[in-house]
Design brief:
alpha/beta, N-(1-d-carboxylethyl)-l-norvaline Dehydrogenase, domain 2, Single alpha-helices involved in coiled-coils or other helix-helix interfaces, 8-stranded mixed β-sheet, 19 helices, 53% helix, binds 6-phosphogluconic acid
Amino acid sequence: MRSEIGLIGLGVMGQGLAVNMAIHGHRVSVFNPTPELFDEFMRGRAALYPSIEGAADIRQLVDSLECPRRIMLMIKSGPPVDSVISELVDFLSPGDIIIDAGNSHFKDTIRRTRELAARGLLYLGIGISGGEEGALHGPSIMAGGSEAAWRSVENILSDIAAKAGGTVQCSGYLGPDGSGHFAKMVHNGIEYASMQLVAETYHMMRCFLRMNPEEISDVFRIWNTRRLQSYLIEITSSILAHSDGSTGKPIVDMIKDAAQQKGTGMWSVFAALELGVPVPTIAAAVEARNMSALKEQRERASGILAGPGLSSPVSVAEASRKGQMIEEIEDALYASLVCAYAQGFALLCAASIAYGWNLDSGQIASLWTGGCIIRAAFLNQIREAFDRNRGLCNLLLDEFFAGEVASCQDGWRSTVAAAANGGLPAPAMASALSYYDSYRLQVLPANLIQAQRDYFGAHTYKRIDADGAFHTHWPTGRERPVG
Ligand code: 6PG
């Protein structure tokens, strides 16, 4: 019997997806360019599933498939995807489907969709989130590209996707060409911001409140029972409770403080800059990873650059103040996370208009309620906000979230101020507060920037009391309309 789908790329995610498909009763043919990984998989995990069929090469994989052929690629983004596609296309017929399930850049997906359509082939670019665990037990799946292709593979992808709360299907078709990979990229931007915000709150409790990792683990565990409930809070509590096997010390203290990144967070900032959408908290998170990577320079700088009360540690809060500070930090984390998600959804909204995707933010929020790395309880409230008002251009304008964030601002401001006064970096949290204050203020100091630009570059400016553009000859003060 021929396989329903082929899968090329047996890395961690590819293997998990293949087994997940088999568990759900689907026949899947698999191939991997490096034989070692292929042999290990076929002799190991795949041996338990007769519906997983190994193919010795791409030609054999194609021949093993029922028509129309459906082939999923789970390989490193960039040229490797184009290379496998160019090898595949010679064996395919019009109507066959290629599904790129890797973290490809959305502009590559737009290009590939167009190139393959010229050959009568259908293309899907799907963002899959959830890591190794998600691939095996249920990821979040964001599909973009040919709707006909989606209908052809929907049954398989719906079977393997997460079901939030056992009911909410965390797989869906978002729109044409690069929309699925764009949504995944924004997911990763929010992921970076969320991880940085959690790390900053950990840093404050560690340095300000002199709490040890186990005590902080308990705080995150409690936070995970209420409005901050999320996958990242859950795993952070677990990580902080872990001891290092070889030293017995907290594992977090044995890990080098230099963050790495594969680049999807950076892509989301580039996309936001191109579209003119402010995403300062996502950008701050990417920058924080870059700063952390300057470990050697920071070690030198620590002996040169003075901070507040360099000679004595940050003042330790008395026990009574400690409880209040933990509550303030919780408020600051929640408000900052809402701002990070608001920035991500604003970016999705702008891209939807710019690329003609007609994205449904409520649908995307729903896809993210299960399986993915940024799954969080408040995504249900985000979905409700966009269901209340599909044209909502920013989450902060939703009545519920406007009220929630406003109720956090005292603790938020106090926490950001304490970080600044205490010499602790909180780039993501501070950027979120400035994003909130910038967005809510009717007048910003950009009028002075316009005057400066006109002074040195005669770039003109608009007035608040008249239409049109104006230029001032600043040495004489003589102003004139310029059309
Ligand atoms: C997911 C993750 C995943 C991510 C890796 C590496 O949704 O499952 O976002 O796709 O790419 O975890 O991420 P960084 O190396 O960029 O941190």
